[in-house]
Amino acid sequence: MISSLRQPVVGISGSDLLLRQRHATPVKARSFLPCLAREKGQGSLVSVHKPLHIASSLGGRNFSSVKSGGKGDLVKCEAYEADRSEVEATNTPSEASKKVKIGIYFATWWALNVVFNIYNKKVLNAYPFPWLTSTLSLACGSLMMLISWATGIAEAPKTDPEFWKSLFPVAVAHTIGHVAATVSMSKVAVSFTHIIKSGEPAFSVLVSRFLLGETFPVPVYLSLLPIIGGCALAAVTELNFNMIGFMGAMISNLAFVFRNIFSKKGMKGKSVSGMNYYACLSILSLAILTPFAIAVEGPQMWIAGWKTSISQIGNQLIWWVAAQSVFYHLYNQVSYMSLDEISPLTFSIGNTMKRISVIVSSIIIFHTPVQPVNALGAAIAILGTFLYSQAKQ
Hints:
By secondary structure, the chain is mostly helical. The chain folds into two domains: about 1-90, no CATH class; about 90-390, no CATH class. About 65% of the residues lie in helices and about 5% in strands. It has helices at about 85-90, 90-125, 130-150, 160-185, 190-195, 200-210, 220-235, 245-265, 275-295, 300-315, 315-340, 345-365, 370-390; strands spanning about 50-55, 65, 75, 80. The strands form two sheets. Strands 1-4 form a two-stranded antiparallel ribbon. The chain has a two-stranded antiparallel ribbon with strand order 2-3. A hairpin with a 5-residue loop joins strand 2 and strand 3 (about 75). Helix 2 runs parallel beside helix 12. The longest helix is centred in the first third of the chain and has 35 residues, at about 90-125. InterPro entries: EmrE-like, Sugar_P_trans_dom, Tpt_PEP_transl, TPT_transporter.
């Protein structure tokens, strides 16, 4: 066990470090770490777990002369263990740089998410095909990462069949959650979708309690009351309420809860980084989603809708589709990179703040009508989400 007590004075009296006042030239030292003899019944004089500090000034209080019986004056110095604060002080710059790095991650994550939601809503308003839009988002991200791996911009992950097997249920849940959220935003305002999606912690607790048998402290259950109450208040006062949009957000919540559960169970011991993990997740989700998107909507509907939208919007629709696809991958990639650097609690708080930025920015940009009661419900739900993250810790 590492001792935190100051070590006793060590007398260095051997021939290893002999300093005589009558010699003008110093005696050559054979070793700067002399052997320290133990007195009978005495434990180790010096802890090997902490660095020793030895005063460097002969005139300081840590040095005193010791009579050596005619052989001249020896020098005795006090050696002591460095305090933990002295050792950790050298790590301050690295800690500061880490905080700056995390701050940059968070700011980038929120900004990219806001931009994605804006362009995603623009595309869905002009070209209402959420299944194709979801597919294009995953396809763009998958293509970007494949090119990065092929060109050496990013190091390709080392995977095996067991990795993809454990990733499959995660990809299924991710695909459902992604499509359900996109369907929701095609029917209702972006702000309303994110207000309902702020209720995800409630789904997490309920699923973990009744399906996995986990129990939580009482404050966690109490934090669900403002979440559920706020979401309900925002829903009943929503001017443009749509049942498909509401159910899409609810299904997305449930799917992402299962995604997190499967991810925790299946990815234990895996050494794939956050960026590459999400890239593999996108590729597998794309393979799962593509046949369903073709079956639900189909190329004929996509082509006919595209011609109509281009005639009304013009070629800027191409830019909107490209932007929402690129920014979808980037914001998710940065969020997974953030999760590599921070605790799940900090990530949860960051996710809550992200929803606030998306809700506020979408209301301003799309001029979404908001009643005071509706805004109150959203605030209560978001506050409950924050309280949940604190109580969960």
